[in-house]
Write a structure and sequence with these properties.
The complex is a heterodimer of chains A (199) and B (200).
Chain A lengths: L21 E5 L11 H6 L9 H6 L3 H16 L7 H15 L2 H15 L2 H10 L7 H14 L7 H9 L4 H24 E5 L1
Antiparallel strand pairs in A: 1-2
Chain B lengths: L7 H6 L6 H7 L2 H15 L9 H14 L3 H13 L4 H14 L27 H23 L6 H9 L4 H29 L2
Helix pairs in contact in B: 3-9, 4-5, 4-6, 4-7, 4-9, 6-7, 7-8, 7-9
C-alpha cells in the first residue's frame, strides 16, 4: 500500500468540454489487480471495470463502491417509465457542465447525443454552457439540474411546474432529481481523486 | 435516522407507505435500496478502518450544514452526539459551518478557453480556535470538504497531500471523499423530493 501522491505520466490536459473519449489519471494509488480480494473484485459489480484505475481506487472502500454503482445503474438504466434515457444523460451532462467536470461531461454528453440523436444541441450545451437555448423541454431539464446543483440549492416549485408544463410526469421529474443529484456525487469523486487527459 | 434500518431519505422527506412518492421511489427499487446501503457503508460500516464513527458524522453534519439543509444537518448532528462525541466537537462543527458557508459552485479551469468562466470564491482556512477544537485530522478533512462542496473544480493533487500529512491514509481519503460526495447526492434527493411532494 502506497500512501503518497502519484506522479501522473506526461499528458495533455483538455481545456474545453468535449464529447471525445478522455482518459482519467489517478492521483492516489488504485488497488493492484493481484492484491484485490474477492470482496474488492465483487465491489466493481462489472468485472470489466478491473481495467479502470478509477474503480480500483474506489474499491479501497468496497461496500461504498458496490452500493454507489447499484444506485447509479438503477437511476440511469431502469427502463420502467419515467424520463427517457437520453434525458437522464442530459441531466448528468448539464450537472457536470455546471460543476466543471470535463471527464464526466464527456461521457454523459456522448451518451445524451447517442440516445437523443441531437448531437448539435448537446454540443451547444458543452460549448455555450448551461444557459444554452435548446428547446423548452431540454431547457427545463437543464435549468432544474442546475438549480439543484447550486449550493445551497436553488431548486423550487417553479422548476417542478416548468417540468410538468414540458410534459414530464412525477416519475420523470423524480428521475431528473436523481440524475442531477447522482452527478453531484460522481463529479466530486472524479474531480478530486485524479484528472482528465486527452487521448 | 433512529436506526440503520430506517430509510434515511424516506425519513427526511417524510415519505409514508402508500403515498405518491412512496410509489415513485418503488419504481426505482435498486436506487432506493442502495442509496440506503451507501449510507450504511459510510456511516455504520461493518469495518470502520481508521475512520471513527465520530469523524464520519462530524463530516456529515458539516457538509449538510454547508448546504443549508437544516433537517439533514440536524439528523447528522444527532448521530454525531450519539456516536459518543464530546459536546465540544458538536460546537466546533457548528462554528466551522458558520465560518465556511458560501455559495457554489465556483472555481477555476486549467488555463485556456474556459478561463473566461473562472469564478472567484473563498478557499476555507478555519480560525485557529476552530482548528484546535477539531484537531488536525478533522480540520484538514473539513477544509477539503469545503472545497468539494463549493468549488470542486479547484481540486488538485496538492489538496490530497494535505490530507496525507494530517494522517489520512489513501484508503481513508477514499472513504472521506465518498462521505462528502454521497452527502452531496443524498441532500439533493431530499431537497428535490420534498419540493416535488409539496407540489403534488
Amino acid at each position: 500500500m502506497s500512501d503518497s501522491i502519484l506522479k501522473t505520466p506526461e499528458h495533455t490536459v483538455p481545456t474545453a468540454f468535449t464529447r471525445a473519449q478522455l482518459d482519467w489519471l489517478p492521483w492516489l494509488e488504485p488497488l493492484a489487480v493481484d492484491a484485490m480480494t474477492p470482496r474488492h473484485v465483487a465491489s466493481l459489480v462489472d468485472a470489466a471495470r478491473v481495467k479502470s484505475p478509477y474503480f480500483r481506487l474506489l474499491a479501497r472502500d468496497p461496500d461504498a463502491l458496490d452500493a454507489r454503482t447499484r444506485t447509479d445503474k438503477d437511476i440511469f438504466y431502469n427502463p420502467d417509465g419515467g424520463l427517457p434515457r437520453a434525458e437522464r444523460e442530459l441531466a448528468a451532462a448539464a450537472t457536470s457542465r455546471f460543476n466543471g467536470c470535463l471527464y464526466c461531461a464527456s461521457v454523459h454528453a456522448r451518451h445524451a447525443a447517442i440516445y437523443s440523436k441531437r448531437e448539435d444541441d448537446v454540443q451547444r450545451l458543452l460549448d455555450a454552457g448551461v444557459t444554452a437555448d435548446l428547446d423548452e423541454r431540454w431547457n427545463a431539464i437543464i435549468a432544474a439540474s442546475v438549480a439543484l446543483t447550486a449550493t445551497p440549492s436553488l431548486f423550487g416549485p417553479e422548476h417542478v411546474e416548468r417540468l410538468r408544463r414540458a410534459g414530464l410526469d412525477d416519475l420523470a421529474i423524480s428521475d431528473v432529481i436523481h440524475a442531477a443529484a447522482f452527478f453531484n456525487w460522481a463529479n466530486r469523486l472524479m474531480l478530486s481523486l485524479g484528472e482528465p487527459a486527452s487521448v | 435516522m433512529s436506526g440503520t434500518d430506517t430509510d434515511v431519505i424516506d425519513a427526511l422527506v417524510g415519505i409514508t407507505p402508500g403515498s405518491a412518492l412512496d410509489a415513485i421511489r418503488a419504481r426505482r427499487p435498486e436506487a432506493r435500496a442502495h442509496a440506503q446501503a451507501t449510507y450504511r457503508a459510510l456511516f455504520a460500516p461493518k469495518d470502520r478502518g481508521n475512520v471513527s464513527a465520530s469523524e464520519r458524522f462530524a463530516v456529515g453534519a458539516f457538509v449538510a450544514g454547508l448546504h443549508g439543509a437544516t433537517a439533514v444537518a440536524a439528523a447528522y448532528a444527532a448521530r454525531l452526539a450519539s456516536s459518543g462525541a464530546p459536546a465540544a466537537l458538536k460546537e466546533a462543527v457548528d462554528t466551522a459551518v458558520k465560518e465556511a458557508r458560501t455559495h457554489g459552485p465556483y472555481g477555476s479551469y486549467t488555463s485556456g478557453p474556459l478561463s473566461r468562466e473562472d469564478t472567484p470564491g473563498p478557499v476555507y482556512r478555519m480560525e485557529a480556535s476552530t482548528r484546535r477544537a477539531l484537531g488536525p485530522r478533522l480540520a484538514a478533512a473539513f477544509e477539503h470538504a469545503h472545497m468539494l462542496v463549493f468549488h470542486p473544480r479547484d481540486a488538485a493533487a496538492a489538496a490530497l497531500q494535505v490530507l496525507l500529512d494530517a494522517g489520512w491514509t489513501t484508503t481513508d481519503i477514499v472513504t472521506l471523499s465518498q462521505i462528502v460526495a454521497f452527502l452531496s447526492f443524498q441532500i439533493r434527493v431530499v431537497t428535490g423530493l420534498r419540493t416535488l411532494a409539496a407540489r403534488a
